[in-house]
Amino acid sequence: MLDADFFRRWMTATAASVDREAERLTALDSPIGDADHGSNLQRGFTAVVATLEKEAPDTPGAVLMLAGRQLVSTVGGASGPLYGTLLRRTGKALGDAAEVTEEQFTDALRTGIDAVMALGGAVPGDATMIDALVPAVDALADSFGAAKTAAEEGAVATTPLQARKGRASYLGERSIGHQDPGATSSALLIAALLEAAGE
Amino acid sequence: MSDSTDKLVGIVLVSHSAAVAASVAELARSLAGGGTTAPVAPAGGTVDGGIGTSAELIAAASASVDRGAGIAVIADLGSAVLTVKALLAEGDELPDNTRLVDAPFVEGAVAAVVTASAGADLAAVEAAAVEAYTYRKV
Its Gene Ontology molecular function terms (chain A) (predicted)? Predict the structure, then answer.
């Protein structure tokens, strides 16, 4: 069973990993975006960890809804509303249970990913965060480790794709050959699940 | 058309740039002509003055133009559009009857402010802003 502490550890581990990888995320965002993905997410997840400590929400759903709301208010780029919606809708789908099963979490995450697709209009193959998240949630039924691998492979697989959404899409074919920064940060988020589980 | 000039639709202009949002607000106000002008508020850039979108500035701008007749929000690109949509989805972040209007930023803002200043309701303001897309220049 996964409790509020698990989800708090998930957010803390994500913040630490975004900190470590911020320069790489921004470097990936430089040729095709506006070179702010790393710093934007760093600011967002730092604020998430601070607000979780301050408000101490006590259910899995409340942790993720608070985290999502914080991302919408602090990021300042498109990743704020996108990651914010992902976490908020996932949290909302978990309801107010004190503990949830891995299966319930998988279903809730799928709801969150659907909400991101509805918000941004991206589908798999558009070279976005969706290309890491969809394979990850599909693999989550097996294990957190399988989800991590699937997300990382999904992120790498955006390299030959032409970006269809966001600023990178203005580059047309010139966006081909660049790994998508959003898919890369999504792989960090999924990898942090494994850390939160202590596996 | 509403019959009460004290309840005008509010207009919020959300841009990645504070200068763009403020300038378009000023342009739209001046083209609205004399008499009563609908409340218009810019929400441009980030809180620290950078390029980007601030949920906080959008919420503050929306509250400042709320006269109880609804609010039309016009946004420029990417994160500006997504942030407004995410705030609307939250339910309690923006005043009741706030709507993201699908319109070109400059032309839509002018159409919205002129129409709102004439006392039109939210649906008419939205229709005027959306219609700005159909004005071809060539």
Answer: glycerone kinase activity
Query: Residue range A126-150: average pLDDT?
Result: 97
Q: Could you give the ipTM of this predicted complex?
A: 0.86
Contact: A72, B78; criterion CB under 8 Å: no
CB contact under 8 A, A119 and B85: yes
Rounded to whole angstroms, the Cα distance separating A58 from A151 reads 28
Task: Give me the number of domains chain B comprises.
Answer: 1
The set of catalytic residues of B is 16
CATH of the domain at B82: 3.40.50.510
B94 CB neighbours in chain A (<8 A) are: none
A74-90 pLDDT tens trace: 998 899 999 999 999 99
Phi, psi of A39 (to 5 degrees): -70, -35
Range of the domain at B80: 10-134
Task: Identify all chain A residues contacting B55, using CB atoms and an 8 Å cutoff.
Answer: 72-73, 80
Query: B102: closest CA among B82, B61, B68, B73?
Result: B73
For residues A109, A113, A119, A123, the Cα torsion angle rounded to the nearest 10 degrees is -170
Q: How many CA atoms lie within 13 Å of A166's alpha carbon, on the beta-carbon side?
A: 29
Chain A neighbors of B83, CB-CB under 8 A: 72, 80-81
Q: Is the separation of the CB atoms in A96 and A60 below 8 Å?
A: no
